[in-house]
Design a protein that fits this description.
148 residues; alpha+beta; Immunoglobulin-like; 2 domains; four-stranded mixed β-sheet; 1 helix; 20% helix; 40% strand; elongated
């Protein structure tokens, strides 16, 4: 009996260690390389930084376009966007945003298997100085037992 306990405990420790290494690897990938950040800084005005989608049913797809305006005198280049989890997929603008123009970062949130409060974040890397704030997506996913 004692031997089974040791084997079970060792397995749990091993699995927890793998998860930590995976999170460390993901964290390292989300840190932008200095070479990815464009050299000519510009300024940005964030029009939408928080979106509260209210209540949705489990399995619904929530889409939102965060708006921002290039208030500087150089093109605004978004080099990377990353989300806090795989259920949230952001899309960056492919072309630079010219001075005075409004740009969009499209975000899709898949609420499947995620009942309860949702708090997701999107990190934007660009040549904006000061940098983009973290974009936030909030709301509540109603579990299937609440849908009738």
């Amino acid at each position: 009996m004692y031997r089974y306990f040791i084997i079970l405990f060792s397995g749990i420790i091993l699995l927890a260690g793998c998860d930590i290494r995976k999170k460390d690897s993901l964290a390292e990938k989300s840190i932008p390389n200095q070479s990815e950040i464009p050299k000519d800084p510009t300024t940005v005005q964030i029009i939408d930084s928080i979106y509260n989608f209210g209540k949705v049913g489990e399995g619904d797809i929530v889409e939102f376009n965060y708006r921002f305006k290039n208030t500087g005198d150089k093109p605004l280049v978004v080099t990377n966007v990353s989300a806090s989890c795989g259920c949230t997929v952001p899309e960056k603008p492919e072309e630079p945003i010219k001075p005075g123009e409004i740009g969009f970062i499209k975000v899709k949130f898949n609420s499947a298997n995620r009942p309860g409060e949702a708090r997701k974040s999107v990190t934007v890397t660009s040549n904006a100085n000061p940098p983009f704030p973290t974009l936030q997506l909030r709301g509540e996913v109603m579990g299937k037992e609440h849908e009738e």
